[in-house]
From TrEMBL:
Function in brief: Binds mRNA; thus facilitating recognition of the initiation point. It is needed to translate mRNA with a short Shine-Dalgarno (SD) purine-rich sequence.
SUPFAM superfamilies hit by this protein: Nucleic acid-binding proteins
Residues of the S1 motif domain: 26-92, 110-176, 197-265, 282-352, 369-439, 456-524
GO cellular component annotations of the record: ribosome
Lineage of the species this protein comes from: Bacteria, Pseudomonadati, Pseudomonadota, Alphaproteobacteria, Rhodobacterales
CDD domains according to UniProt: S1_RPS1_repeat_ec1_hs1, S1_RPS1_repeat_ec2_hs2, S1_RPS1_repeat_ec3
Matching NCBIfam families: PRK06299.1-2, PRK06299.1-5, rpsA
Annotated Gene3D superfamilies: Nucleic acid-binding proteins
Protein name: 30S ribosomal protein S1
Annotated SMART domains: S1
Keywords on record: Repeat, Ribonucleoprotein, Ribosomal protein, RNA-binding
Family: Belongs to the bacterial ribosomal protein bS1 family.
Length: 560
C-alpha cells in the first residue's frame, strides 16, 4: 500500500516537472549560449533541447552582433524538435513579440519609441523599433522635404507611433512629429526672448522667390523681399546667399502662430526722408529704367527711390504704343519731377517734358501761310493726315482740298503714301493740332473774280444755261444762278426762255457768299435800282410828271 502511494507521488512530481520545464511551442523562452560556430549560436533552451540561431539576428541594423558563450537570451520556440532533433528557435521573432508588447503600451500612452532607419521602400523608409519593423512615410521624415536621407540611416533616434495593427503587422511612425514638438518648444523659448524692434543676428537658411528664411538660433523668421532694401529687389539672391550671417530687425511677432517677420532696410536710413528736398518739382534728373509695365516705366532716381513715368508722359507724339517701344530696362534717361506724394511714397515723372513740345517748335518754324510737304499717313471721312517733321501730323479738312470739287470727290484723288504739298493755316499748340490746306497753294479764283465787286455793283454776265426755274450765268469763270422771280421787274417778262445761251446781261449783285462761293444776282434788282435813280435825278412824285416822262427824259439825258 505504501509502495503504491510512493509511485503515485513520483508520477505526480514527474508530470509537474514536465509541465514546469517543458516549454510550449509558439512562446518566448529563455536559453543559454553554449557554443558559436559557422555563423550561428547554439542555444540550450532547457529540457535537453538545443537550437541554432543565425548571429545576424543578434545584431541591430548597421551594427555587428554582440553575443558571447554563456550569455542568456530570449528566443521564440517555433517547434520543439525538427528533423535533426533540434529545437526550431528564432531571436528575431522573440524580439518582435517583445517589441509589439512594448510598442502597444507606448502607443496607448502616446509615448515616444526609439528606432533606427535601416531601409528604403516605395513612398518612405523602414524603421527597426527594437525587433518590430515600422513604415516611415517620406512626408514624415522631417519638417521640410529631405533630399538625402543617408545621414539618418542606422542612427538611433525617437519616433512617434501614428497607428499600428498587430493582427496585420502594420506600424506607421513619424520622425517629423518629434521634430515639430521639439521645434515648437525651442521656438517658444527663443520667441519669449525677442521683442519687436530688436536688432538681431541671423543666418540665411533658405531663399525663395518672395524672400528668405533666417535662423535666429532655433527659430526661423521670414525676411520678405520688400523688406530687404529700400530699392527694388527682383530676387533675394541679388543681395543674400545661403549660410550668410545678416543683421535684421524684428518687425512683428505672432505669438499664436510663432511667426516672425524680419526686415533689413529698417536698419538703414530711409531715402524718402529727403526726397522732397533733393527732387523739387519741375527739376530734371538722370535715372535708370528698372521695370516696364503696360501703363508706364519705373525709373530709379537713387537706390530706394523710384518714380513712375506714366505712358501718357513718355512721348509727345507716340500716344498708343507700349512703353517698351520707347524705353528699355536699364536704360539711363532724363526725367522731370512732376509730382511727389510723400505719404504714399510716390514720385510722378515725365520723359517728354525733357524735350521741347514739337507743336510749339513747329509753330515757331512754320508760321501760318508756310508751305510744307509730307506723306499721306491716313485718310479718314473728314480729311487727310499728313506726316510732318518730328513725328507730328497735320490735317487737311475735306473743305480745304479743292476750290472746285466737293471734298468727298476731291479726297478720292489721294492714296496713303502720296507726297502732298499744303499750306499751314493754323497751329493750336494746346490741342496739338495743325490745320493744313491744299487748295490754298493756288489763289482763290472766287476771291480773284469778285475782288472788285461789291454788294450793289452792276456787272455783266454771260448766260450759260436756260432752266425752267431761271437761268445760269457766268462771271469771270464763276457760275451763278438767277431765279425766275429775279429775271425782271415786270412779272410778264420773268420768262427764262426770252434769254439765249451766250447772251450778255447786266445784273445787280445782291449778295457775296464767300463760304458757298456764290454771287447773288438779280436783273429785277438792277431795274428797280435804275428806276429809283431816274426818279431822284429827273423828277419826283410831287412834280406831276409820269414815270414814262421821267424815263424818257433820263434816256434823252443819256444820249446827250
Amino acid at each position: 500500500m505504501a509502495q503504491n502511494t510512493s509511485m503515485e507521488e513520483f508520477e505526480a512530481l514527474l508530470n509537474e516537472s514536465f509541465e514546469i520545464d517543458t516549454p510550449s511551442e509558439g512562446s518566448v523562452v529563455k536559453g543559454k549560449v553554449i557554443a558559436i560556430e559557422a555563423g550561428q549560436a547554439i542555444i540550450d533552451v532547457g529540457y535537453k533541447m538545443e537550437g541554432r540561431v543565425e548571429l545576424k539576428e543578434f545584431a541591430n541594423p548597421g551594427e555587428a552582433p554582440e553575443i558571447e558563450i554563456g550569455d542568456e537570451v530570449e528566443v521564440f520556440l517555433d517547434r520543439v524538435e525538427n528533423a535533426r532533433g533540434e529545437a526550431v528557435i528564432s531571436r528575431d521573432k522573440a524580439r518582435r513579440e517583445e517589441a509589439w508588447d512594448r510598442l502597444e503600451k507606448a502607443y496607448a500612452d502616446d509615448a515616444r519609441v526609439e528606432g533606427a532607419i535601416f531601409g528604403r521602400v516605395k513612398g518612405g523608409f523602414t524603421v527597426d523599433l527594437g525587433g518590430a519593423v515600422a513604415f516611415l512615410p517620406g512626408s514624415q521624415v522631417d519638417v521640410r522635404p529631405v533630399r538625402d536621407a543617408g545621414p539618418l540611416m542606422g542612427l538611433k533616434q525617437p519616433f512617434q507611433i501614428l497607428k499600428m495593427d498587430r493582427r496585420r503587422g502594420n506600424i506607421v511612425v513619424s520622425r517629423r512629429a518629434i521634430l515639430e514638438e521639439s521645434r515648437a518648444e525651442q521656438r517658444a523659448e527663443v520667441i519669449a526672448k525677442l521683442t519687436e524692434g530688436d536688432a538681431v543676428d541671423g543666418v540665411v537658411k533658405n531663399i525663395t522667390e518672395y524672400g528668405a528664411f533666417v535662423d535666429l538660433g532655433g527659430v526661423d523668421g521670414l525676411l520678405h523681399v520688400t523688406d530687404m532694401a529700400w530699392r527694388r529687389v527682383n530676387h533675394p539672391s541679388e543681395i543674400l546667399s545661403i549660410g550668410e550671417t545678416v543683421k535684421v530687425q524684428v518687425i512683428k511677432i505672432n505669438k499664436e502662430t510663432h511667426r516672425i517677420s524680419l526686415g533689413m532696410k529698417q536698419l538703414q536710413d530711409d531715402p524718402w526722408d529727403t526726397v522732397g528736398a533733393k527732387y523739387p518739382i519741375a527739376t530734371v534728373h538722370k535715372g535708370r529704367v528698372t521695370n516696364i509695365t503696360d501703363y508706364g516705366a519705373f525709373v530709379e532716381l537713387e537706390p530706394g527711390v523710384e518714380g513712375l513715368v506714366h505712358v501718357s508722359e513718355m512721348s509727345w507724339t507716340k500716344k498708343n504704343v507700349h512703353p517698351g517701344k520707347i524705353v528699355s530696362t536699364s536704360q539711363e534717361v532724363d526725367v522731370m519731377v512732376l509730382e511727389i506724394d510723400q505719404a504714399k511714397r510716390r514720385v510722378s515723372l515725365g520723359l517728354k517734358q525733357c524735350m521741347r513740345n514739337p507743336w510749339e517748335v513747329f509753330a515757331e518754324t512754320h508760321p501760318e501761310g508756310t508751305e510744307v510737304e509730307g506723306e499721306v499717313k491716313n485718310i479718314t471721312e473728314f480729311g487727310l493726315f499728313i506726316g510732318l517733321d518730328n513725328d507730328i501730323d497735320g490735317m487737311v479738312h475735306l473743305s480745304d482740298l479743292s476750290w472746285d470739287q466737293r471734298g468727298e470727290e476731291a479726297i478720292q484723288n489721294y492714296r496713303k503714301g502720296d507726297m502732298v504739298k499744303a499750306v499751314v493755316t493754323e497751329v493750336d499748340t494746346d490741342k496739338e493740332r495743325i490745320s493744313l490746306s491744299v487748295k490754298a497753294l493756288e489763289g482763290d479764283p472766287f476771291a480773284e473774280a469778285v475782288g472788285g465787286v461789291k454788294r450793289g455793283s452792276v456787272i455783266t454776265v454771260t448766260v450759260t444755261s436756260i432752266e425752267e426755274g431761271g437761268i445760269e450765268v457766268e462771271y469771270e469763270g464763276m457760275k451763278s444762278f438767277i431765279r425766275r422771280s429775279d429775271l425782271s421787274r415786270d412779272r410778264a417778262e420773268q420768262r427764262p426762255e426770252r434769254f439765249q445761251v451766250g447772251d450778255h446781261v447786266d445784273v445787280r449783285v445782291t449778295n457775296i457768299d464767300s463760304k458757298s462761293r456764290r454771287l447773288g444776282l438779280s436783273i429785277k434788282a438792277r431795274e428797280i435800282a435804275e428806276e429809283k435813280e431816274a426818279v431822284q435825278q429827273y423828277g419826283s412824285s410831287d412834280s406831276g410828271a409820269s414815270l414814262g416822262d421821267i424815263l424818257g427824259a433820263a434816256l434823252k439825258g443819256d444820249e446827250k
